[in-house]
Amino acid sequence: MVCIGSLYCVSGHSEASQKSLFNTALASIQRLVDQNRSKYQERWIMQTLLLLEFFGIYGGDDECFLQAQRIHRDLVDAMRMLQLTHDGSHSFQDEDNEEDEMDGASTNSESPESLDASWLEFAELEAKKRCVYSLYLLDSQLAILCNLRPMLSSLEIKYDLPCSENLWLAKSASSWFARRQEQFNSFNDNDDESYDHEASPSQGFFYEASQTLLHSKHLKDHKRLRLLWASPFAAIILVTQLQMMARELTHASCLLERPKSQRRALSVLTDSQHSQISQALKGIAELVPRNKRSTFSFLPPCDLPFPDNETPLWHSFWLLWLYSSLTLSHPDSLLVSGVVECNLPLAIATAGHLATPRSKEKRDIYEDRDVFRILNDLELALERMSPTKSTASPLMENPFISILGFKICLIGWRLVRLTMGEAHEAANRGATSNPCKFVLDIIMAFVHLEQDAIMCNEALYGTAVHEQEAGLHATNNPSTITNLGQTFSDNMASEVQFLEWVIDVFKQRKSWPVGNWIAAVMEESLEKARTVYNESKARGD
């Protein structure tokens, strides 16, 4: 436990010492489970191995990454061998009985001893359930990041969805009972019984929850799914499942219907597949809180108000949701190209390379419908990543979510390159309406907002507030486009400005090395973009 704590705390540990701590902790746990495989059933063993796997994936060391993959395989094998994907006494009970237990939980009085026992039983079951779902999430993350084939299917997991965070974080049996009572009482709406809605499907299985989202038109009438309002972890699990479903459909479609000998449509999914998964995503969005964001402020980031419901998990949920929605129309480049990478730095570099602008003959066909579908989600995603708009601290961001943000920015880069030439020509013609300029203006609004904020802070305080901490370009930096005599109306400078903004955003992600990896990849692209821009200015384009 000391090793685990040392790995995750903010300290001056070198990479060598972190690797040593990682290996020491892993070796200790490995000795225990090698002697007795049933040790995997102990909750603390599972939790420790999951933490080690997470650190191995995102810690930045290639050997640790390979060890993390071995941990993952061992955990999946142990979970199947020991049948840890379900708890037979709970998961297979009749749905009506389960509903009765929920309703009765708020009225039955218990002695302090039995209440303590009930709380401990709940905590043990919930902890095991969350370990299994965490393993599923890590399995999905490896697939999304490196294009590895997933080892786990949602069909294998027979647990119900995780409970609300409020219930899970209760500090005592009495607090747990009180929160449980409040939670279930809030759903005892007598009016529900008078309506003739379709019968609620069993929520005992992970698979059935997704089927409800995909096929039901009355999501708010299902008590279990309504708990998503208070459970960002459960919401993340369901969105991840939809993302993996879309990836499997995309992978199959690429094998069947996308010959490389000709230009292909950007969107791979059929209209029916796109519509069904998109509707399920919208169904989840309707069941979770719409986070209140602070309006634009000239105050330093540390002085921005943080709403109560703006937690790191909800921030992760919304970026994952937006990424999943975006990739229905703009599938992941590693997935459609069939490239599999063996570590994260290579996966990030390859994703950046595949997003590099290409001539019309060598890129996919961007249909108007796809562009405007993408634009809506892209605008919301960039807003969540924008330092002047987001209320979530970049230091608290999960490294997986940071990489999803990078992939979202690559989509934005593609659209900037796709539209800025026509937008520039339209501006020179004096056109009052142009779809390309409309798309470009929406994307660049956040970049210009950052530059406006810096200039206003300089005017108010004499310097950009927290410039070094935020990593933002100051207006007196000669390398920026805005100080080369150009204005925001210079559409041909949009690519350079956008890439500068992306680099600034990811330099703020300092808790894990992925931020620096992303910034390094984008800096190479920025140099090329500056060269192209300067050449076009020299030609007078």
TrEMBL record:
Q: Does the keyword Zinc apply?
A: yes
Compartment(s) where it occurs, according to its Swiss-Prot or TrEMBL record: Nucleus
Single GO biological process annotation from the record:
DNA-templated transcription
User: What Pfam families does this protein's entry cite?
Assistant: Fungal_trans
Domain Xylanolytic transcriptional activator regulatory stretches: 1-195
Q: Which InterPro entries match?
A: VerF-like (IPR051059), XnlR_reg_dom (IPR007219)
One Gene Ontology MF term: DNA-binding transcription factor activity, RNA polymerase II-specific
Extract the ranges annotated as region (Disordered): 89-113
- Swiss-Prot/TrEMBL keywords: Metal-binding, Nucleus, Repeat, Zinc, Zinc-finger
Under the cellular component aspect of Gene Ontology, which terms does the record hold?
Answer: chromatin; nucleus
Protein name (database record)? Xylanolytic transcriptional activator regulatory domain-containing protein
- According to its UniProt entry, this protein's organism is Coleophoma crateriformis
Organism placement in taxonomy: Eukaryota, Fungi, Dikarya, Ascomycota, Pezizomycotina
